[in-house]
Amino acid sequence: MSYAKFLVKRILQGVFVVWGVVTVTFALRAAAPGDPVNLIVDPGASPELREQIRREVGLDQPLYVQYLEYLQGLVVGDLGFSYQSRRDVSIMIAERLPATLELAIAATIVAVVIAIPLGVVSATRRHEPADYGATLFSLVGISTPNFWLGIMLILVLSVQIGLFPVSGRPVSFTDAVVSLVTTGYAHDLVTWLRHIALPAITLGTYFTALITRLTRSGMLDELGKPYVTATEAKGLPGVLIRYKHVLRNTMIPIVTVLGLQLGTLIGGAVITEAVFNWPGLGSRLISAIYAVDWPLIQGIIIVIGVGFVCINILVDSIYAYLNPRVTDE
User: Where is the chain membrane-spanning (predicted)?
Assistant: First the structure.
């Protein structure tokens, strides 16, 4: 199969997955108990007013007609209207999406900076205390719930020591960089770093443990290959062999998992955002669930699903470009 056909196949599969997400979320809204009109007007409103609103928003139409109209709106970028907030859903999501992306990318950076060196050390010092320590760290990282870790970090590093702020996001990364470029002062950037540090560590802990184990297993496979023995026989330094040759050959599956996990982090930041009051899609989703704001709930879930699918397609395309054998699978 050619690269172009492979890419078209992945895109079509992604479109099908997005359609499934849209269909499931619409079905959940239709199956939810209660009258949707109650979310727009007071339950004590007159029957005439309720019927008028039902006609205006299309709730008097058959369910399949409502579904088709919703799909038509999504095609042109219309995610609906939040009657609780009296605002377009697309605008409400656009306000919070940058904060979620900042947190997901920061968590990925934290995981990579910690996990890859730790995995290399664990592989090169197999069955030594460093290897056992890395294994224990991975086990603890995978087993620790994010919400508990976040609360403990707040209690110790914020409340007791006062090293980091408790919660919030007073400045965005974009504004901090603009301030640094225009004024030459890094105050806003430092403020952003101090506020995102604990949420990024909390969200990236599980990811760190996963990448550590993946790096270790990949390094062990590569260290047993003949080219490593040949480079050692040439007298190359051990650090150069490990990081330039062995780690480089291990990076393809790591990069693949990094891309896939980035999509998972975007959707999995809900609890972390709630713990740290981080103004992202996760906290907005929880607020929408409490308010039973179905248009906003649907919009956020669809955006997260589309983001996850796009990242998967991008990773698959890069992987197929680097390793053409993938297109034959």
Answer: 12-32, 103-124, 136-163, 192-211, 252-276, 296-315
Q: Where are the beta strands (DSSP E) in 32-154?
A: 81-82, 87-88
Q: What is the pLDDT of residues 128-169, one digit of tens each?
A: 888 888 888 888 877 888 888 888 989 998 888 888 888 888
Q: Could you tell me which residues are beta bridge partners of residue 167?
A: none
CATH of the domain at 198: 1.10.3720.10
- Residue 144 near residue 272, CB atoms below 8 Å: no
Q: Facing residues of 81 across strands?
A: 88
Which residues, 6+ apart, have CB-to-CB distance to 219 below 8 Å?
119, 120, 123, 124, 242, 246, 247, 250
Q: How far is CA 100 from CA 116, 182, 203, 320, in A?
A: 24, 25, 11, 28
Helix, strand, coil % in the chain, rounded to nearest 5: 80, 0, 20
Is the pLDDT reported for residue 256 higher than 80? no
Please check whether residue 262 lies inside any domain of the structure.
Answer: yes
For residue 142, the enclosing domain spans 100-280
Among the listed residues 115, 127, 19, 140, the one whose alpha carbon sits nearest the alpha carbon of residue 68: 19
For the chain, what is the domain count? Answer: 1
Give the largest Cα separation in the chain, rounded.
Answer: 89
